[in-house]
Amino acid sequence: MAETLLDVRGLRLSFATEKGSVRALFGVSFSVAPGETVGLVGESGCGKTVTALAVLRLLQSPPAIVESGEIVFRGEDLLALPEKRMCGVRGKSISMIFQEPMSSLNPVLTVGEQVAEVFTAHNVCGKREAAERAVEWLRKVHMPDPSLRAREYPHQMSGGMRQRAMIAMALALTPSLLIADEPSTALDVTIQAQILSLLRELRERERMAVLLITHDLGVVHDFADRTAIMYLGRIVEIAPTRELFADPIHPYTQGLLASLPGKRTGEKRLPSIPGTVPDLSNVPPGCPFADRCPFRREALSRFLAREVPADPLAVCDREDPPLYEYSGGHFAACHHQRTVRGGGAR
Amino acid sequence: MNGTPGIGWDFARRLLRNRLAAAGGAVILFFFLVSALPGLFSTHEPNRIDIVNILRPPSGAHPLGTDDLGRDVLARVVHGARISLSVGFVAVGIAIAIGLIVGLLAGFYGGWADAVLMRLVDMMLCFPTFFLILSVIAFLEPSIWNIMTVIGLTGWMGVARLVRAETLSIKERDFVAAARAQGAGSARIIFRHVLPNTLAPILVAATLGVAGAILTESALSFLGIGVQPPTPSWGNILTAGKDNIEYAWWLSLFPGLAILVTVLGYNLLGEGIRDAADPRLKGR
Lengths: 346, 284
Known about the structure:
By secondary structure, chain A is an alpha/beta fold. Chain A is built from 13 helices and 13 strands. Chain A has helices at 48-55, 83-89, 111-121, 127-140, 146-149, 159-171, 189-206, 217-223, 241-246, 251-258, 294-304, 315-318, 335-341; strands at residues 6-17, 20-32, 37-41, 64-73, 76-77, 94-97, 177-181, 209-214, 226-231, 234-240, 324-325, 331-332, 344-345.
């Protein structure tokens, strides 16, 4: 990639709890180019939201502690910025929209006031102009009757309208990066589609980059240029979206894609990934997925049946695999696939 | 506007449907009117001494009778309303202002600030308030301003605890995180997002607080260290009446009733506001 807007490098983060320190991110690295959309996919608790909040430095510290890593945005390490300058970054250069439109708006302020506040908080313009621009933005997100709705309170609006208002707030200062944390999850399906098409339209018009966090593979498939799959606080595979769906390398990604309901007919049950995600407070050494990995299981059973003299994948239990590069820009963290496909070290 | 009612409208409707609260509100409005326009309710001078007509029972000329200096009791109660109510309001205003600031800072910043401020609250609560007020007033001149200030300075701890508790829960709400993600600083979050959301319980506390402050002022004036005669306040009219209570019941009864009805009015309104603001009771 020629240019990067956001570059997260080796981010390790842990939370101090009563039972000691629990690590949530184990060296997360990815980058977002200007205007690019990167999908961050994973199941609940894998660290997607924590990654996003860490980028905006919205995690309370303590308990959250960044152990190592850098978050470079336009050449500046955000982790080193004083809080005051960080306030200038939030909302202006990087914005975020949240999952719950129901609770993400202040119940005692009108929607117009809340959108206008983004302008006044960043001293962009005076109150009156801010109110006018707020109505303008509500129009841009296709809020029906924008000047009327601006005077209403969040409880008078539907979920979809509130999410539109949230989007207006997030985009008001035309940030170069929008972090969208499950923007459509809490909405019903038709509204979901509307919100996503709105985001797509605004992304084109404002030429902003989007970091889309979701657990919905269908959404990233339609929306993201590149997709990163997270598992247990790590990115296990990252590739251009088309390529990731066409040729998944990591066994976890393969399992995820296999478990999607698709065109297959006749099968009664969808395939699923055996086992459960390990507890973050007690992560075994080696590959975090080893326990559930079909390659590892097969190797182990062949070794136990004495078909092979030595356990070919013993390395999985010892070493956490780094991301290896395969064909152009496709990275995956798997010992087995590296030996089979011969990926180069990153 | 279109037909959708706002928060305020819905709230007012529920408040008015509660008859006791509406009655309390009516009493309070009535006494507001009395203190704003005393001339409308009594034509007599509250401090005019009339030696010929002392200790006269209620009659056409003096509807509530006269006191031991021949002053019209109705005029004194009417003019005393302004004094008693303003003591209530100013004292509660001071208490709310201090309580809000302490509670917001303690709740929002937590940790060290919270520990120090809340221990200060605990310390203040250790003193029996009334005796604290008595001893402070003993050193100061017992003027109406000193009374207001002292009642206010000893009454903020409850508000501080209330606001702190509210702040603790509000600062975890999603819209606060969303405001932060939009680049709002701490001051903006405290005053634009947290404070307005704590106002409902504060309104209840303030309404009940006014009743308490009026009672405290009456008690202080009754003991002779409150509002000083000849300025009429309900408490000192009551005091003046106690010397003659055997011959002139009207001297004590009417200021006492005024206090009772006002305090009751504030308490009923306060509880009505609390119920109307509680979403769990919405169906009623």
